[in-house]
Amino acid sequence: MKDLETILGGLYDVAVSLGEIMGNKLNDAIDEMFPLSDEQTKKKGGKK
Q1: Are 44 and 36 in contact (CB under 8 A)?
Q2: Would you say the pTM of this structure is higher than 0.70?
Q3: Average pLDDT, stretch 14-35?
Q4: CA 1, CA 7: separation in Å to the nearest integer?
Q5: What is the rounded distance in angstroms from the CA atom of residue 17 to the CA atom of residue 45?
Q6: Which positions ≥6 away from 31 have C-beta within 8 Å?
Q7: Which pLDDT score is estimated for 25?
Q8: pLDDT higher than 70, residue 35
Q9: Average pLDDT, the chain
Q10: CA distance 24 to 3
């Protein structure tokens, strides 16, 4: 049972990582389509 939990935990971590990567790409695409004002960009993390 412990092994199953370990495997599921690993899969969950991978899924979260993939979700973050996809989310970041999606955010970048949205930013390019709808450029944010400087103020919003700073709040978000000021990448640009």
Answers
A1: yes
A2: no
A3: 90
A4: 10
A5: 19
A6: 48
A7: 93
A8: yes
A9: 81
A10: 32
Helix (H, G, I), strand (E, B) or coil at 32: helix
**Tokens coding 20:** 């973050």
Closest CA to 47 of 20, 28, 19: 28
> How far apart are the two ends of the chain, measured CA to CA in Å?
47
pLDDT of residue 36: 64
Taking the CA of residue 40 as centre, how many other CA atoms within 13 Å lie in the half-sphere pointing to its CB? Answer: 6
Distance CA 17, CA 8 (A): 14
Q: What is the DSSP letter of 45?
A: T
Residue 7 clears pLDDT 70, i.e. is over it: yes
8 Å CB contact between 27 and 34: no
Amino acid 40: pLDDT: 58
AA identity, residue 47: K
